[in-house]
Specification:
By secondary structure, this protein is mainly alpha-helical. It is built from seven helices and no strands.
């Protein structure tokens, strides 16, 4: 009986993992080293490889939006997706920030502030998950949008033909940093309240 029932137990788990949203998330993770290689190979010369890096970044960000829409529409939200999707996002944005700073195109303090907040809040979510789930806030979504726009502007190889683009990118990035810090503080407050409510048995 055990051997006969085993396929029935493992089959659904496999189908839950290998669904379209999760495959798109995995594809986004695979795109990260491709994006990194293209950026390093270009070496801030802003040539054809830089355009390919921009394309890889754009495709990855599009899959981020697409996999979420498909997962919700088709009721394909899985535990793997809940964990892997934000990790894939942070790997991509983190790689972009680190590369731009390493190439001298973005101040290091911006990269440090954003990465400390992003990975710190991710760790905090895992710590308090025993007490409950902290959903993404509207501010958190705005933060993601601003970071994506700012990174996209920084990545575009247009500084020689459109000198205003880096200045606009810097302003948008400053706005992203401000929202990133504020929403990070808000998540810390929510985590403290969530834990306190769980301890009180509410």
């Amino acid at each position: 009986m055990t051997t006969a029932q085993q396929p029935e137990q493992t089959g659904p788990r496999a189908s839950q993992l290998w669904n379209l949203p999760n495959i798109l998330t995995m594809f986004r993770i695979v795109l990260v080293p491709v994006f990194v290689w293209l950026m390093l190979a270009d070496g801030s010369h802003q040539g054809p490889l830089r355009w390919l890096a921009v394309l890889a970044f754009a495709i990855a960000m599009y899959t981020d939006q697409l996999d979420g829409q498909i997962a919700r529409r088709r009721n394909l939200v899985t535990n793997f997706g809940k964990i892997a999707d934000p990790i894939a996002d942070k790997l991509l944005t983190g790689a972009g920030l680190l590369l731009l700073s390493a190439l001298g195109e973005l101040p290091w303090w911006i990269t440090i502030v954003i990465l400390v907040r992003e990975w710190g809040i991710t760790a905090l979510r895992f710590v308090v998950i025993r007490y409950g789930v902290m959903p993404a806030s509207p501010g958190g979504k705005l933060k993601t949008v601003l970071q994506t726009i700012a990174l996209g502007l920084y990545l575009l190889p247009l500084r020689d033909v459109a000198p205003a683009v880096p200045a606009v990118a810097f302003v948008v990035m400053l706005a992203a940093v401000a929202v990133t810090v504020v929403t990070g503080a808000d998540y810390v407050v929510k985590a403290v309240r969530l834990r306190a409510a769980a301890v009180r048995g509410e």
